[in-house]
Specification:
It comes from Streptomyces canus. With 182 residues, the protein is α+β, with helices and mostly antiparallel strands. 37% of the residues lie in helices and 22% in strands. A hairpin with a 6-residue loop joins strand 1 and strand 2. The longest helix has 49 residues.
Length: 182
């Protein structure tokens, strides 16, 4: 009886070890995907600021165009901080552009009563996307070229833009939302 209970306790421990390792892999994947997307969000914001006086380029920027999707380097850094390695793929062609990351833990599940676990590593996937938070309407034909469109962002926040005073521009988190996706 005691032997059976002891075996059951060790089995629960093995399951717990595997679950903890899987959680580590998922944490690493989530963090890496978000880091990659945040890196690109910042580049998109920089691109928008550089082109703020040319609203004809805004739509492409808000759709994820105009920048290299180079966030996988940041994903690799974050994975290493979470004791994992990653395979990262940029997807600027998605409806909401983003990244898909597969993270594998550097630490194995460990030794347990279940044979073969000492060499097993957990692998999990995550996707992060970059979603524009603002919309605008281009001025019609014959409109004053010195007037910029007003940005209307989430929660009804309006950003009236004055081409003669560009000191109060939206920040990256005002322009784009970055989140995990299925």
């Amino acid at each position: 009886m005691v032997g059976g209970l002891l075996l059951l306790a060790f089995a629960y421990l093995a399951v717990g070890q595997a679950a903890a390792n899987r959680n580590s892999a998922q944490t690493a994947a989530d963090a890496a995907a978000l880091a990659a997307a945040l890196d690109t969000r910042d580049k998109l914001t920089d691109e928008w600021v550089e082109n703020v006086l040319d609203p004809t380029k805004w739509r492409d920027i808000f759709d994820g165009g105009g920048v290299m999707f180079g966030g996988c380097a940041r994903a690799t850094q974050l994975a290493a901080q979470n004791d994992a390695s990653v395979q990262c793929d940029a997807h600027p062609e998605w409806a909401l552009p983003g990244y898909e990351v597969e993270a594998t833990t550097n630490q194995s599940v460990g030794e347990s009563i279940v044979p073969g676990t000492e060499g097993e590593h957990s692998t999990e996937r995550a996707r992060a996307v970059i979603e524009p938070r603002c919309d605008f309407e281009l001025p019609g034909t014959g409109a004053d070229p010195d007037v910029l469109p007003k940005l209307t962002c989430d929660e009804g926040v309006d950003w009236p833009l004055d081409p003669t005073d560009l000191t109060n521009l939206p920040k990256p988190e005002d322009l784009f939302d970055v989140h995990l996706a299925d």
